[in-house]
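Following up on my earlier thread - several people asked me to post the actual chain instead of describing it. Fair enough. Here it is, all 125 residues.
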Amino acid sequence: MSEQREVARQSGTSLVFACSGAADVGAISDRAARRLSAEKSASMCCIAAIGADIQEIVAKARSAGAIVAIDGCSLECAKKVLEQGGFQGFAHVQLEDMGMGKGKSPVTDERVETVAQEARKFCCR
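Reply from S.P.:
Thanks for posting it. Predicted structure:
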């Protein structure tokens, strides 16, 4: 692990990137990431900025102690964008693995909390 990444890990810096797709599971992913950010478990960052190679966000992600990608469905867009950006070794939470299906999982506070709870396991604290 790079020295910079170790300092970030020790400082508790975690970033969360979420699929914010059009389906119900995308909305759940987005809201879970926002919840983590609001409670300061992680800082939510824009996955599109990684895809667009926005250097400020890419650099922030490279220096993070932990990265969590939250995907709503099996297309795994957030995971793929991070991988295409050269990121490896990040945590990945996929809602279909948690029994939530596209078009079959209305957004509820309970579902959002279930996803947030799973993602919290991977955040530095």
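Residues 24-38 form the longest helix (15 residues). That should answer part of your original question.
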